[in-house]
C-alpha cells in the first residue's frame, strides 16, 4: 500500500441539474447577499443566457443590482479596474459570474479588488498573497471545458507590460458553482468540441501526472468516462440536454481533479502556443494531448492503460492485452479527435490551425520550459524534447 502524502481540497458547493439556476436566490440569501452584480460578456447576453437567471431572481424577488456585460475574450487589468468601479458605485455586495474562462477569471480578479481595496490588481498577483475571505461569489459556467468554477486560480493580462498575471489562492474559489445544461445548449459545434477536449485534457493529465492521488483519480476517471460517452453525442444532437449536463459535470469534475493533482507538458505547450499564436486554449489542449502522451508513455504505462476502460468501455478494455492498453488509450483519443475534425474541422495538427508558422516552433519550445505546469510532467522535458513533440504535432 502506498504511504505517499497528499492533500485534496474542494470546498465549492456544486448545484447541478435541469433546474439548478432556480436555486440562485436561495444561495444568495444564505450568505446574506442582497445586491449582486452579474459579470458576463456580450456573447452570453446576446445568446439570452441571462434570461433564466434573471427570471429565477425575479420570481423570488431577488434584485440584480447591475449587469456588466462587456468582458473581452482576453480580459485585462484595465477591465478589472473598470468593473470594480461600477461595483462600488452601485453599492454591490456580491458577484455572479456567467460565462466561460474570461468572465470567470475577470470576476475572480474583481472580487479581489472590491474585497481588498485599491485599483491595482497587480499588487495581489502570485500565490498566497490573499489572507482573508472575499465577497460572496457564485459562478455559472456557459462552456463545458475550463473547470474555472472550481479552481483557485485566475489569469489576467497586464497590457501595459505585455504579461499575464497569475493569481492563486483558495479564497478565489466561489461559494457555489451552478451547473445547468440550459447554459450550454447554444454552444456552437466548434466551441463544444474544443471545450470538451479541454476538459478531457484536464482529466487525462490529472490522472497521469506526478501529483495524482486516489481522490483526484476518482474525479478524473469519472470525467473521462462522461466525455467519452457524451461529446460526440452532443456534436450530433446539440439539443440533447442530458448529454450537455454530463459534459458540464465532467468539466467540473476535471477541474476538481487537476486543481488537486496539477497538469503537465500539454498545458506548458498549450499556454505558450496560445500566448504566441493566439489560438484558443481548448484547441491547444486537443492539439498536443496525444503527442505528449506518446512522449510520456514509458513513465505512465499503468495509469494510461487503465484509462482505456473509461475511454472505450469494458469490452474493448477486456479484450486488449495489458501491454497494448497504453497505446490503445492514445489511439482512442486520436479517434475522438478525428471524429471531431470530421464534424467541425477541429484542428489535429499545428498545420491545420493555419495560424502557426514552422519558424515559430523553436520559440514555443524554449518558452514552454518556463511554464510552471512542466514541473508536474511525469518525464523530464529538455529543449530538444519539447522541439521533438512540436515537430510531431506539426503534422
TrEMBL record:
InterPro entries, per the entry: ADH_Fe/GldA, ADH_Fe_C, ADH_Fe_CS, Alcohol_dehydrogenase_Fe
Family: Belongs to the iron-containing alcohol dehydrogenase family.
Reported cofactor(s): Fe cation
Gene3D superfamilies in UniProt: 3.40.50.1970, Dehydroquinate synthase-like - alpha domain (1.20.1090.10)
Record keywords, A-Z: NAD, Oxidoreductase
Pfam family, one: ADH_Fe_C
GO MF entries: alcohol dehydrogenase (NAD+) activity; metal ion binding
Taxonomic placement: Bacteria, Pseudomonadati, Pseudomonadota, Gammaproteobacteria, Alteromonadales
Originating organism: Hydrocarboniclastica marina
Domain of life: Bacteria
Residue ranges of domain Alcohol dehydrogenase iron-type/glycerol dehydrogenase GldA in the record: 11-181
Domain Fe-containing alcohol dehydrogenase-like C-terminal stretches: 192-394
Name of this chain's protein: Iron-containing alcohol dehydrogenase
Amino acid at each position: 500500500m502506498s504511504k505517499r502524502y497528499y492533500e485534496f481540497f474542494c470546498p465549492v458547493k456544486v448545484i447541478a441539474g435541469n433546474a439548478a439556476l432556480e436555486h440562485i436566490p436561495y444561495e444568495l440569501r444564505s450568505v446574506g447577499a442582497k445586491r449582486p452584480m452579474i459579470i458576463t460578456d456580450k456573447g452570453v447576453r446576446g445568446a439570452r443566457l441571462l434570461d433564466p437567471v434573471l427570471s429565477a431572481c425575479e420570481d423570488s424577488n431577488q434584485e440584480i443590482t447591475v449587469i456588466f456585460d462587456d468582458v473581452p475574450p482576453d480580459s485585462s487589468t484595465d477591465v478589472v479596474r473598470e468593473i470594480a468601479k461600477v461595483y462600488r458605485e452601485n453599492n454591490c455586495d456580491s458577484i455572479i459570474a456567467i460565462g466561460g474562462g474570461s468572465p470567470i477569471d475577470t470576476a475572480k480578479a474583481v472580487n479581489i479588488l472590491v474585497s481588498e481595496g485599491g485599483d491595482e490588481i497587480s499588487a495581489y498577483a502570485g500565490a498566497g498573497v490573499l489572507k482573508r475571505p472575499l465577497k460572496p461569489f457564485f459562478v455559472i459556467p456557459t462552456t463545458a471545458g475550463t473547470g474555472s468554477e472550481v479552481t483557485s486560480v485566475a489569469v489576467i493580462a497586464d497590457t501595459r507590460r505585455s504579461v499575464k498575471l497569475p493569481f492563486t489562492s483558495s479564497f478565489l474559489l466561489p461559494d457555489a458553482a451552478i451547473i445547468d445544461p440550459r447554459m450550454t445548449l447554444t454552444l456552437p459545434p466548434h466551441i463544444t468540441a474544443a471545450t470538451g477536449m479541454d476538459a478531457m485534457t484536464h482529466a487525462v493529465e490529472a490522472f497521469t501526472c506526478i501529483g495524482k492521488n486516489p481522490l483526484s483519480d476518482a474525479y478524473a476517471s469519472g470525467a473521462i468516462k462522461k466525455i467519452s460517452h457524451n461529446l460526440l453525442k452532443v456534436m450530433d444532437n446539440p439539443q440533447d440536454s442530458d448529454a450537455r449536463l454530463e459534459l458540464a459535470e465532467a468539466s467540473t469534475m476535471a477541474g476538481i481533479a487537476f486543481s488537486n493533482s496539477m497538469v503537465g507538458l500539454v498545458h506548458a505547450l498549450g499556454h505558450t502556443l496560445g500566448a504566441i499564436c493566439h489560438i484558443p486554449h481548448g484547441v491547444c489542449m486537443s492539439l498536443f494531448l496525444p503527442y505528449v502522451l506518446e512522449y510520456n508513455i514509458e513513465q505512465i504505462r499503468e495509469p494510461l492503460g487503465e484509462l482505456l476502460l473509461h475511454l472505450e468501455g469494458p469490452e474493448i478494455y477486456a479484450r486488449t492485452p495489458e501491454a497494448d492498453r497504453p497505446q490503445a488509450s492514445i489511439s482512442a483519443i486520436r479517434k475522438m479527435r478525428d471524429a471531431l475534425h470530421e464534424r467541425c474541422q477541429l484542428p489535429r495538427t499545428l498545420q491545420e490551425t493555419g495560424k502557426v508558422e514552422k519558424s515559430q516552433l523553436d520559440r514555443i519550445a524554449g518558452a514552454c520550459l518556463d511554464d510552471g505546469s512542466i514541473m508536474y510532467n511525469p518525464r523530464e522535458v529538455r529543449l530538444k524534447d519539447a522541439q521533438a513533440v512540436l515537430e510531431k504535432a506539426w503534422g
